[in-house]
Amino acid sequence: MDNVNANIEKVLSQKIFKPNRDFAKLARIKNMCEYEDLCYNADSDYEKFWGDLAREKISWFHPFNKVLNTENAPFYKWFEGGKLNVSYQCIDRHLKEKKNKVAIIFEGEMGDYKVVTYRKLYTEVNKTANLLKNHFDIRKGDRVVLYMPMIPEVAIVMLACARIGAIHSVVFGGFSPEALRDRIQDAEAKLVVTADGAFRKGKPYMLKPAVDKALENNSCPSVKKVLIVERNGEDIEYVRGRDFSYNEMIAHERSIFEPEPMDSEDPLFLLYTSGSTGKPKGVQHSSAGYILHAQLTMEWVFDIKDSDNYWCTADVGWITGHTYLIYGPLACGATTLIYEGTLAYPNYGRWWQMIEEYKIDKFYTSPTAIRMLYSHAEHEPRNYDLSSLKVLGTVGEPINPTAWKWFYEEIGGGRCSIVDTWWQTETGGNMITPLPGATPIKPGCATLPLPGIIAEVLHEDGSRVENGEQGLLCITKPWPSMIRNIWGDSERYIESYFSQVKRDGMPIYFSGDGAIIDEKGYITITGRTDDVVNVSGHRIGTAEIESAITKHESVAESACVSKLDPITGESLFAYIVLHENVPRSMGEELEIMKEINGILSKEIGNIAKLGAALFVPGLPKTRSGKIMRRILKSIARGEEVKQDISTLEDPSIVEKIVKIVTNV
Ligand code: WT7
Fold it and tell me: What percent of the chain has pLDDT over 70?
């Protein structure tokens, strides 16, 4: 398989595939003229464009009086004066026409399944809202942390929070108790909702013990209670007065709960993500702007239809799980599939079998999953009928042309557009992506920004780079679903996103990604320019990794960079300097590496394991003590070191490291 990301030129020279004409005829956006018309409308009157869409798409309790307020930029406000409730938008407004339509199809890994109609979803969300309010005193603005598996209750609890106006913060179930504790503390959550556990790889796994660990020694004083959904039936301990069973309590609740009228800008949720420095940051999203973009992109990018069965494989603990598993599909009144388990249980045909069984029309997944399925069972899809598929989507990382072509031909039968969607936790929804009925697609290229999204590839001074030259991927106008703040840290919000690129003194949103734009305006993402590593589409901050590694008593210092990996896209590569008195031997180093991986999985979770570690005598540093990571990245990727090393405090260290690498 070709190296992911390594060969941008290969992507740039790919041939173009045209959208399927039969599909296009029925699509919402049928051709490039229609796309360009929308872009033209957005360009000629930006506020009218977004204002009209917001009026059309959202069921307002009270209309807004201002589309965009830039007075306090970059703290933008959208649709001020408007009142809405996101749970109403996702459920109540569909009931008149779709009360018996399936909202959620759930399939457990062991093959059990369940359908939840819109009517049933309404009942369950209302009961849950009553439960949260009456027994756990959850009010508007309170934070609720969810540490849950992929089961319908996760959607129900998220929507119940939205109904009350409480702010949810979903923590990925693969994060360790320590990582969970950090997030609970930062959000000062009042309640944690979890499950005993669920099923994975054919076996039960546990979540509740991690919550106990996160809360032990009264380390999260804000948390008063824990609510537990029973899923796998394994024994768990209930702490008296603190822990309560969802399944027992929910039966007694009333199924009517008036949705709280929320301001457009009231936060809907927090979602923690890694930055290049420091602890994870709580990305804060709004109510109106977020749900508008979630709904709109389901219509534009997935061309969601009433009869569709739609499946997004992302875990609910990531932004894709928020926007394209739950909020987007439900805001459209669509049917969304929630699958509990892994892609390889009982074998590598599981996903294809589910697509056949549920006649999935639109399928959204990650390049890492595609590469795994391709490399383990290339011909397996041929055993299944995948002819229901119409649109395929990928997200989270660049997709290499080889994986793209397999996805296109073997899964999509050469008939489906692939929407390679570029976006981020911070953008709330898709930003740069093909439209399936309109955009000619190019393997590995995210193509064009959506109408109303102004993406540019810039130098730091805000000027545009030449076509074909790499630059900084920026969004130069605010957009409705953008991040509103970092929870509790406005300075970090400005510092993280609005400090690197300025145009005429005005701060511009910089994504952290590099990109190349061609003469047609097609944008190819070249990867992060900062110290963030993308492992299987999971964002990992190297600063967090380094601070965990140095907790090992033998380690003096370390530097972590990304290395290319044929399956996970990138992997973590750590350079480790041991204290002088530590005995050196292969055996000793292997032992330390094992212990370091143990620390990483305890501090962060299993997604943070090192792909490789190299024990070195020192790190390349400038005279002011700054580690030159770019040099280390080049070495890890087996590239020639082109950076100027003469300004290093000890230039000979580079040669020493290269020597060690070539000997390994
Ligand atoms: C980072 C955002 C967006 C939801 C999942 C990840 C990378 C995302 C693509 C793509 C190339 C991509 C970027 C971005 N990324 N989509 N289609 N092609 N790279 O969300 O954890 O916030 O990560 O993922 O580097 O900055 P996230």
Answer: 99
CA nearest 258: which of 132, 126, 136, 137? Answer: 126
423 close to ligand 1 (CB < 6 Angstrom): yes
pLDDT tens digits along 487-524? 999 999 999 999 999 999 899 999 999 999 999 999 99
For the chain, the structural domain boundaries read 45-342, 455-528, 532-663
Same fold, 45-342 and 455-528: no
The answer on whether 318 is annotated among ligand-binding residues is no
> Tell me, what amino acid is at 235?
D
**Fold of domain 45-342:** Rossmann fold (3.40.50)
User: Does 424 contact ligand 1 (Cβ within 6 A)?
Assistant: yes
Nearest Cα neighbor of 225 from 158, 307, 135 is 135
* Residue 202 annotated in ligand binding: yes
- Positive or negative, the CA dihedral 149, 150, 156, 157 is positive
518 is in an annotated binding site: no
For the domain bounded by 455-528, which CATH number is listed?
2.30.38.10
**404 CB less than 6 Å from ligand 1?**
no
What's the whole-number mean pLDDT along residues 263-280? Answer: 93
Q: Which superfamily is assigned to 532-663 in CATH?
A: ANL, C-terminal domain (3.30.300.30)
pLDDT of residue 6: 53
Residue 1 banded pLDDT, cuts 50, 70, 90: very low
CA dihedral 208, 213, 217, 218 (to 10 degrees): -50
Q: Which of 77-81, 383-387, 447-451, 606-610 has the lowest mean pLDDT?
A: 606-610
